[in-house]
Amino acid sequence: MAHALDFDDTLDEAALHTGVAVIPAVLAAAEASGTANGEQLIESIVCGTEILGRLGMGVLNSPGDWGWVYTSALGSIGAAAAVAKLLGGDEDVIWNAMGIAYSESAGNCQTSTEGTLAKRLQPGLAAGSGVRAAELAMAGLTGPREFVNGKYGLASLYFRGEYDSSRAVRTLGSEWLIDRLAFKPYPCCRAIHGALDLVLEAVNAGKLRPETLRSMRIGGSAGVHKDLGLPLEQKRRPASLVDCQFSTPWLVALVTVLGRGLKVQDMGPFHEADPEVTRVVDLVSTYSDPRIGVLEGAQKAVLSFETLDGETYETMTNAFYGSPEDPMSDATLIAKFDDCASMAETPLRPEAAAAVRNSIMKLEDIQGATAIREILAPLRRG
């Protein structure tokens, strides 16, 4: 469920989501063990985030180049490390847990290419794999240590040598990657957010209006252009919710017409779209901008458009909203939480949502083995 709305945290420089694989695994293991306090939950999540994030930072190409979804392909390893730490495993146990998890490392881009709901499932499979691997390691099973740079490790087998371990550990010991996480303001693929930021900026400045638009072009990395802008006619006519969330032309057109940022409620059935959105999307195209590197797809974007009276406009962003460079405020994050809670299959009552939120905000202060129960109890009561 954590990945169902494509509204999860992102490590932009690694093109993956850490929380969606690590946090569900930690919560499940903590509930099963019944022994974890708040500090232990936090330490385990930080550990898993660090492992998963740094594994992803070593990859030198975008997910579309290899077809692997890094969140799930690497997520099982990060989840295994987090759970093994939570369960009290020593260094050997954590190593074994990660090696065992490598045996189940999987997750592919075909799920999003075809716009299927299996896209949502893959991080959950990674989380489950991490829990199993940690439990097996705690029971004494061993796993390979050289699962990154070994003869058949990730670097050679999964990424065909396009992997730089030195990049992965460059800031190790001086920077925690959990502090580098970006939080999404819009429920869609993170690599589209920069374009949406720029469109909103132009709309708010009075420079962009749907009724006066002649054409619009969105520039991104080669991978972003290929994966989120092509084939153009298919991206202009998405056939499912997943297609919508991975279409730069569609989402840019939607925001242009709405004149505001996207909410969860906006991501409804594609066939109910406003005809004005359909008209505007036919004016939008994407291209590969040479100023944006292969690993900068979730950090840089370009917007250019021409109006009916011949005026032209171009702007570029080097940091997407929600990133550490342009962070969302606590108040905005809380509003996002409440919005998501209201959209649950069984919507949380405001007081239940507030109870969950308050437990999370004071998690480090929860003593004894009650942390997980305090977080989950309001969810069960509804």
UniProtKB/TrEMBL annotation:
Using the record's annotation, list all stretches that form the MmgE/PrpD N-terminal domain. Answer: 1-162
The source's domain of life comes to Bacteria
Q: Which family does it belong to?
A: Belongs to the PrpD family.
The major lineage groups are: Bacteria, Bacillati, Actinomycetota, Actinomycetes, Mycobacteriales
Q: What is this protein called?
A: MmgE/PrpD family protein
Q: Report the residue ranges that make up the MmgE/PrpD C-terminal domain in this protein.
A: 186-342
One Gene Ontology molecular-function label: lyase activity
Cross-referenced Pfam families, in alphabetical order? Answer: MmgE_PrpD_C (PF19305), MmgE_PrpD_N (PF03972)
* UniProt cross-references to InterPro entries, sorted A to Z: MmgE/PrpD_sf, MmgE/PrpD_sf_1, MmgE/PrpD_sf_2, MmgE_PrpD, MmgE_PrpD_C, MmgE_PrpD_N
